[in-house]
Design goal:
Number of helices: 6
Order of helices and strands: HEHHHHEH
Structural class: mainly alpha
Largest sheet: 2 strands, antiparallel
Shape: elongated
Length: 193
């Protein structure tokens, strides 16, 4: 026989007894409970697994390719399209050379017609570059948002690990208790009889 050294042992047992008696007589209200769907062995395994994971392994923002991609997108969003404008500049140079040859043969490099043709080519170049910049920035914005969310997605993905939800909400209906049940029977018998 063991003797409890817990000072509150008898008091807590008495309290539990009165609490149970109260619930038996007066009942308990309905409530929503959230018990775990994992058994104790699964809970221990999951806790052990997550305890072994080094979060820095999933720190995508520290990876060189992520940083290079982020830097590239930031330059595009800032308007730097220098690496994409070379074909447009080559086309403009070819157009201006063709214009110069055509007007030089007529002796009119200083004519207003040459100036207008050159201005038109420069205007088209500006339009093409502005369109290119807008399109690249629009694409870069969507990608940049994805890059900004990537670190958090890695962490959320790790938390899932393909497991089903570990908590399930369950409604526990009201327990009317002895007193309410007896009163309901008495009222029913008086009204029906």
């Amino acid at each position: 026989m063991t003797i409890s050294t817990n000072q509150g042992g008898f008091g807590s047992s008495l309290s539990d007894l009165f609490s149970g008696l109260k619930q038996f007589v007066f009942g308990t209200p309905g409530k929503i409970e959230s018990p775990s769907t994992l058994d104790p062995q699964q809970q221990a395994f999951l806790k052990n697994l997550l305890g072994q994971v080094d979060p820095s392994t999933f720190a995508i923002q520290n990876q060189p390719t992520f940083q290079a991609g982020q830097s590239y997108l930031q330059s595009l969003l800032g308007g730097d399209i220098s690496q994409f404008q070379a074909p447009y500049m080559r086309q403009f140079q070819e157009q201006t050379a063709d214009l110069a040859e055509r007007f030089a043969g007529l002796g009119g490099l200083s004519s207003s017609g040459f100036q207008q043709a050159l201005g038109g080519a420069a205007g088209r170049l500006q339009e093409n570059l502005a369109s290119l910049r807008g399109g690249l920035q629009q694409q870069a914005l969507g990608q940049a948002l994805g890059y900004a969310q990537a670190p958090g997605q890695m962490q959320f993905g790790l938390a899932g690990l393909g497991l089903r939800p570990s908590i399930e909400n369950v409604y526990k209906p009201e327990d009317p208790g002895l007193l309410k049940s007896v009163l309901a029977l008495l009222i029913k018998s008086k009204m029906g009889g």
